[in-house]
Amino acid sequence: MKKFFSLIFVIMLFVSVTVFAADLVNKDSRSYSLEISSVGTLHTSIGSNTTIMSGAPDGSTIKIKETGSTITVDGDNPVIIKDGKLSQ
Q1: pLDDT tens-digit readout, 52-74
Q2: How many Cα atoms within 13 Å fall on the side-chain side of residue 37?
Q3: Rounded distance, CA 59 to CA 5, Å?
Q4: With contact defined as beta carbons under 8 Å apart, do 52 and 24 qualify?
Q5: Are strands 32-37 and 70-72 parallel, antiparallel or unpaired?
Q6: Which residues, including other chains, have CB under 8 Å from residue 1's CB and lie 6 or more apart?
Q7: CA torsion, points 15, 76, 69, 37, in degrees to nearest 10?
Q8: Neighbour-count burial for 56-81, b at 16+ CB within 10 Å, e otherwise
Q9: What is the pTM assigned to this prediction?
Q10: What are the pLDDT digits (tens) for 10-68?
Q11: How far apart are CA 61 and CA 37, in angstroms?
Q12: SS3 84
């Protein structure tokens, strides 16, 4: 029974994180390495002129490694990379 409730909790947690995640949009013509910190830290990248659907969880902190630009995601409005800077 404990396993059942643990599974339900994990599913609810996953759904709540994905429901409140913003798109991550790179409008620049170059790729960037990103550091996304929420519960843990994820090191990833985004290609030029690319959108990662639900790539920015609400409350997470995103940093572009090359420029140092940092933002804390607030809600589900898209996070935009333009001229190496993050905005929402």
Answers
A1: 998 888 999 999 999 999 999 99
A2: 7
A3: 26
A4: yes
A5: unpaired
A6: none
A7: -20
A8: bbbebebbbeeeebebebeebeebbb
A9: 0.76
A10: 555 454 444 578 999 999 999 999 999 988 888 899 999 999 998 888 999 999 999 99
A11: 5
A12: coil
Q: What span, in angstroms and rounded, lies between the C-alpha atoms of 36 and 59?
A: 10
Say if residues 8 and 16 touch (Cβ distance below 8 Å).
Answer: no
Q: Give the per-residue pLDDT at 17.
A: 45
Please name the residues in contact with 26: beta carbons below 8 A apart, sequence gap of 6 or more. 32, 46, 47, 48, 49, 50, 51, 81
The span from the CA of 41 to the CA of 56, in Å, is 12
Could you write out the DSSP letters of every residue in 4-65? Answer: HHHHHHHHHHHHHHHHTEEEEEE-SSS-EEEEEESSSEEEEEE-TTEEEEEEEETT-EEEET
The answer to whether the beta carbons of residues 59 and 38 sit under 8 Å apart is yes
In whole angstroms, give the CA distance from residue 33 to residue 46.
Answer: 7
